Amino acid sequence: MAGFNKVFNTYEEALSGLSDSMTVIAGGFGLCGIPEGLIAHIKTMGVKDLTVVSNNCGVDGFGLGLLLEDKQISKMVSSYVGENALFEKQLLNGELEVELTPQGTLAEKMRAGGAGIPAFYTATGYGTPVGEGKEVKEFDGRPYILEHAITGDFAIVKAWKADKFGNCVFRHTAQNFNPMAATAGKITVVEVEEIVEPGTLSPSEIHTPGIYVNRIIKGEFEKRIERRVVAKEDV
Protein backbone atom coordinates (compact mmCIF):
# COMPACT_ATOMS: atom_id res chain seq x y z
CA MET A 1 0.00 0.00 0.00
CA ALA A 2 3.04 2.28 0.15
CA GLY A 3 2.40 3.38 -3.41
CA PHE A 4 -0.80 5.10 -2.30
CA ASN A 5 1.02 7.37 0.17
CA LYS A 6 0.37 10.95 -0.96
CA VAL A 7 2.36 12.72 1.76
CA PHE A 8 4.99 15.23 0.62
CA ASN A 9 7.61 16.54 3.00
CA THR A 10 8.32 19.98 1.54
CA TYR A 11 6.30 22.78 -0.02
CA GLU A 12 8.65 22.71 -3.00
CA GLU A 13 7.63 19.13 -3.72
CA ALA A 14 3.95 19.71 -2.94
CA LEU A 15 3.72 22.60 -5.42
CA SER A 16 6.03 21.15 -8.05
CA GLY A 17 4.75 22.00 -11.53
CA LEU A 18 3.02 25.24 -10.62
CA SER A 19 4.14 27.87 -13.11
CA ASP A 20 3.28 31.24 -14.63
CA SER A 21 -0.18 31.85 -16.15
CA MET A 22 -1.84 28.90 -14.43
CA THR A 23 -5.25 28.89 -12.74
CA VAL A 24 -5.23 28.20 -9.00
CA ILE A 25 -8.43 27.40 -7.08
CA ALA A 26 -8.07 28.17 -3.38
CA GLY A 27 -10.31 27.04 -0.55
CA GLY A 28 -11.21 29.22 2.40
CA PHE A 29 -13.63 31.94 3.40
CA GLY A 30 -12.07 35.15 4.60
CA LEU A 31 -9.14 33.82 6.62
CA CYS A 32 -11.04 30.75 7.82
CA GLY A 33 -9.75 27.48 6.44
CA ILE A 34 -7.11 28.92 4.13
CA PRO A 35 -3.99 26.94 3.12
CA GLU A 36 -1.62 29.46 4.70
CA GLY A 37 1.66 27.69 4.04
CA LEU A 38 0.87 26.84 0.43
CA ILE A 39 -0.06 30.45 -0.30
CA ALA A 40 3.11 31.72 1.37
CA HIS A 41 5.22 29.33 -0.69
CA ILE A 42 3.56 30.43 -3.92
CA LYS A 43 4.72 33.93 -3.02
CA THR A 44 8.25 32.61 -2.48
CA MET A 45 8.16 30.83 -5.85
CA GLY A 46 7.49 34.14 -7.58
CA VAL A 47 5.16 32.70 -10.22
CA LYS A 48 3.30 35.43 -12.12
CA ASP A 49 0.16 36.05 -14.18
CA LEU A 50 -1.95 33.71 -12.06
CA THR A 51 -5.71 33.45 -12.29
CA VAL A 52 -6.92 32.77 -8.75
CA VAL A 53 -10.40 31.48 -7.99
CA SER A 54 -11.43 31.94 -4.37
CA ASN A 55 -14.23 33.49 -2.35
CA ASN A 56 -12.02 36.51 -1.58
CA CYS A 57 -8.39 37.59 -1.69
CA GLY A 58 -7.36 37.46 1.96
CA VAL A 59 -6.30 40.65 3.69
CA ASP A 60 -3.36 43.01 3.34
CA GLY A 61 -0.22 41.05 4.15
CA PHE A 62 -1.82 37.66 4.80
CA GLY A 63 -3.47 34.83 2.90
CA LEU A 64 -3.96 35.45 -0.81
CA GLY A 65 -3.26 39.11 -0.11
CA LEU A 66 0.43 38.13 -0.06
CA LEU A 67 0.28 37.35 -3.78
CA LEU A 68 -0.90 40.86 -4.59
CA GLU A 69 2.23 42.44 -3.14
CA ASP A 70 4.41 41.44 -6.11
CA LYS A 71 1.47 41.49 -8.55
CA GLN A 72 1.52 37.72 -8.99
CA ILE A 73 -2.25 37.61 -9.61
CA SER A 74 -3.49 39.01 -12.92
CA LYS A 75 -7.12 37.89 -12.56
CA MET A 76 -9.26 37.17 -9.51
CA VAL A 77 -12.56 35.26 -9.68
CA SER A 78 -14.29 35.87 -6.37
CA SER A 79 -17.49 36.91 -4.64
CA TYR A 80 -16.16 39.33 -2.02
CA VAL A 81 -13.37 41.89 -2.12
CA GLY A 82 -13.97 44.11 0.89
CA GLU A 83 -11.13 43.45 3.36
CA ASN A 84 -8.09 44.20 1.23
CA ALA A 85 -6.95 47.75 0.46
CA LEU A 86 -4.26 46.62 -1.99
CA PHE A 87 -6.85 44.56 -3.87
CA GLU A 88 -9.03 47.67 -4.19
CA LYS A 89 -6.08 49.80 -5.34
CA GLN A 90 -4.97 47.35 -8.04
CA LEU A 91 -8.56 46.91 -9.24
CA LEU A 92 -9.16 50.66 -9.55
CA ASN A 93 -5.77 51.17 -11.24
CA GLY A 94 -6.55 48.53 -13.85
CA GLU A 95 -3.69 46.30 -12.66
CA LEU A 96 -5.99 43.45 -11.62
CA GLU A 97 -8.88 41.93 -13.55
CA VAL A 98 -11.74 40.94 -11.27
CA GLU A 99 -14.67 38.70 -12.17
CA LEU A 100 -17.24 39.14 -9.42
CA THR A 101 -19.39 36.05 -9.01
CA PRO A 102 -22.31 35.47 -6.62
CA GLN A 103 -21.15 33.31 -3.74
CA GLY A 104 -23.49 30.37 -4.33
CA THR A 105 -22.76 30.47 -8.06
CA LEU A 106 -19.02 30.38 -7.36
CA ALA A 107 -19.43 27.33 -5.13
CA GLU A 108 -21.53 25.60 -7.79
CA LYS A 109 -19.00 26.47 -10.52
CA MET A 110 -16.33 24.62 -8.52
CA ARG A 111 -18.64 21.70 -7.71
CA ALA A 112 -19.73 21.39 -11.34
CA GLY A 113 -16.14 21.50 -12.53
CA GLY A 114 -15.21 18.70 -10.18
CA ALA A 115 -18.24 16.65 -11.26
CA GLY A 116 -17.52 16.99 -14.97
CA ILE A 117 -20.58 19.18 -15.60
CA PRO A 118 -19.55 21.88 -18.12
CA ALA A 119 -22.28 24.43 -17.34
CA PHE A 120 -25.56 24.96 -15.49
CA TYR A 121 -28.47 27.38 -15.36
CA THR A 122 -29.19 29.59 -12.34
CA ALA A 123 -31.62 32.41 -11.65
CA THR A 124 -29.01 34.21 -9.56
CA GLY A 125 -27.69 37.27 -11.39
CA TYR A 126 -30.40 37.48 -14.04
CA GLY A 127 -31.24 41.10 -14.81
CA THR A 128 -28.03 42.37 -13.19
CA PRO A 129 -24.54 43.08 -14.57
CA VAL A 130 -23.63 39.50 -13.60
CA GLY A 131 -25.98 38.20 -16.30
CA GLU A 132 -24.94 40.55 -19.10
CA GLY A 133 -23.98 38.70 -22.29
CA LYS A 134 -24.92 35.27 -20.91
CA GLU A 135 -27.35 32.85 -22.48
CA VAL A 136 -30.85 32.99 -20.98
CA LYS A 137 -33.48 30.25 -20.94
CA GLU A 138 -36.86 30.01 -19.26
CA PHE A 139 -37.86 27.11 -17.03
CA ASP A 140 -41.43 27.08 -15.67
CA GLY A 141 -41.79 30.70 -16.70
CA ARG A 142 -38.70 31.94 -14.85
CA PRO A 143 -35.54 33.17 -16.63
CA TYR A 144 -32.19 31.58 -15.86
CA ILE A 145 -28.66 32.43 -17.02
CA LEU A 146 -26.05 29.94 -18.17
CA GLU A 147 -22.94 29.76 -16.00
CA HIS A 148 -19.84 27.77 -16.92
CA ALA A 149 -18.04 25.42 -14.56
CA ILE A 150 -14.56 26.18 -13.24
CA THR A 151 -11.53 23.92 -13.14
CA GLY A 152 -7.96 24.80 -12.27
CA ASP A 153 -4.43 23.65 -12.97
CA PHE A 154 -3.94 23.47 -9.20
CA ALA A 155 -6.32 23.45 -6.25
CA ILE A 156 -4.91 24.39 -2.85
CA VAL A 157 -6.97 23.29 0.13
CA LYS A 158 -6.76 23.32 3.92
CA ALA A 159 -8.07 20.36 5.94
CA TRP A 160 -8.08 19.46 9.61
CA LYS A 161 -7.10 15.81 9.22
CA ALA A 162 -6.12 13.57 6.35
CA ASP A 163 -4.89 10.02 6.13
CA LYS A 164 -1.93 9.15 3.96
CA PHE A 165 -4.26 8.10 1.14
CA GLY A 166 -5.70 11.64 0.95
CA ASN A 167 -9.06 11.17 2.65
CA CYS A 168 -9.84 14.53 4.28
CA VAL A 169 -11.86 15.85 7.20
CA PHE A 170 -12.63 19.57 7.55
CA ARG A 171 -13.39 21.16 10.92
CA HIS A 172 -16.54 23.20 11.48
CA THR A 173 -16.76 26.38 9.35
CA ALA A 174 -13.29 25.76 7.89
CA GLN A 175 -15.09 23.35 5.58
CA ASN A 176 -16.55 26.30 3.55
CA PHE A 177 -15.26 26.22 -0.06
CA ASN A 178 -12.57 23.60 0.57
CA PRO A 179 -14.50 20.44 -0.47
CA MET A 180 -15.60 21.99 -3.77
CA ALA A 181 -12.16 23.38 -4.50
CA ALA A 182 -10.58 19.99 -3.83
CA THR A 183 -12.55 18.37 -6.64
CA ALA A 184 -11.86 21.01 -9.27
CA GLY A 185 -8.07 20.98 -9.61
CA LYS A 186 -6.07 18.91 -12.06
CA ILE A 187 -3.57 18.68 -9.20
CA THR A 188 -5.07 19.09 -5.71
CA VAL A 189 -2.70 19.85 -2.83
CA VAL A 190 -4.07 19.64 0.71
CA GLU A 191 -2.34 21.29 3.65
CA VAL A 192 -3.42 19.65 6.91
CA GLU A 193 -3.06 20.03 10.66
CA GLU A 194 -2.74 16.31 11.28
CA ILE A 195 -1.86 13.30 9.14
CA VAL A 196 -3.14 9.93 10.35
CA GLU A 197 -2.65 6.35 9.26
CA PRO A 198 -5.07 4.80 6.73
CA GLY A 199 -8.01 3.18 8.47
CA THR A 200 -7.95 5.71 11.32
CA LEU A 201 -10.76 7.82 9.88
CA SER A 202 -14.27 6.46 9.90
CA PRO A 203 -15.76 6.44 6.39
CA SER A 204 -18.74 8.41 7.70
CA GLU A 205 -16.56 11.36 8.80
CA ILE A 206 -14.64 11.79 5.53
CA HIS A 207 -15.69 14.93 3.65
CA THR A 208 -13.37 14.64 0.64
CA PRO A 209 -12.38 11.17 -0.58
CA GLY A 210 -8.73 10.64 -1.43
CA ILE A 211 -9.55 10.02 -5.10
CA TYR A 212 -9.64 13.81 -5.51
CA VAL A 213 -6.34 14.48 -3.71
CA ASN A 214 -2.91 14.24 -5.30
CA ARG A 215 -0.61 15.61 -2.61
CA ILE A 216 -0.73 16.17 1.16
CA ILE A 217 1.57 18.24 3.33
CA LYS A 218 1.50 18.89 7.07
CA GLY A 219 1.49 22.61 7.82
CA GLU A 220 1.68 24.95 10.77
CA PHE A 221 -1.10 27.50 10.96
CA GLU A 222 -1.32 30.96 12.45
CA LYS A 223 -5.12 31.02 12.06
CA ARG A 224 -5.57 34.77 12.18
CA ILE A 225 -8.96 36.23 12.98
CA GLU A 226 -10.07 38.46 10.13
CA ARG A 227 -12.39 40.63 12.18
CA ARG A 228 -12.92 40.18 15.90
CA VAL A 229 -16.39 41.07 17.17
CA VAL A 230 -17.23 40.76 20.86
CA ALA A 231 -20.43 41.41 22.78
CA LYS A 232 -20.67 44.39 25.08
CA GLU A 233 -20.74 43.54 28.77
CA ASP A 234 -24.21 44.98 29.28
CA VAL A 235 -25.77 42.90 26.49
From TrEMBL:
<dbReference type="InterPro" id="IPR004165">
    <property type="entry name" value="CoA_trans_fam_I"/>
</dbReference>
<dbReference type="InterPro" id="IPR037171">
    <property type="entry name" value="NagB/RpiA_transferase-like"/>
</dbReference>
<protein>
    <submittedName>
        <fullName>3-oxoacid CoA-transferase subunit A</fullName>
    </submittedName>
</protein>
<dbReference type="GO" id="GO:0008260">
    <property type="term" value="F:succinyl-CoA:3-oxo-acid CoA-transferase activity"/>
</dbReference>
<dbReference type="InterPro" id="IPR012792">
    <property type="entry name" value="3-oxoacid_CoA-transf_A"/>
</dbReference>
<keyword id="KW-0808">Transferase</keyword>
<dbReference type="Pfam" id="PF01144">
    <property type="entry name" value="CoA_trans"/>
</dbReference>
